[in-house]
Specification:
disordered N terminus; Multidrug-efflux Transporter Regulator, Chain: A, Domain 2; alpha+beta; 5 helices; about 15% strand
Length: about 100
């Protein structure tokens, strides 16, 4: 089985469950539930530490956006990113005023 998995190329746009969870805020158990119930496709590929499951990121994102909980997590992450960018701009303005840059 491992030989068969190693021979399969990883398709573009497919990511590990950890990568999908990090990108969408969906938990590993939610992702497992989605692929076990056929809501998203998945496949096994050879990984560094043995076989690992991969899923198509675009479909996971679509499914996550359909989930109110995941959508709130994504929106929260986006708002935090916007806050970080605003703080960086403020620091830059202060550094310019102080002649540091």
């Amino acid at each position: 089985m491992l030989g068969e998995l190693a021979a399969q190329p990883i398709e573009e746009g497919w990511v590990t469950l950890s990568e999908a969870a990090a990108a969408t805020g969906a938990s590993h158990s939610t992702l497992r539930s989605w692929y076990r119930s056929g809501l998203i496709p998945s496949k096994m590929v050879a990984g560094v530490h043995g076989p690992q499951r991969i899923v198509p990121l675009d479909l996971v994102v679509d499914k996550a956006l359909g989930s109110s909980r995941s959508r709130r997590q994504l929106e929260h992450a986006r708002s935090l990113q916007a806050e970080v960018e605003e703080l960086r701009r403020r620091v830059e303005v202060i550094e310019r005023q102080l002649g540091l840059i």
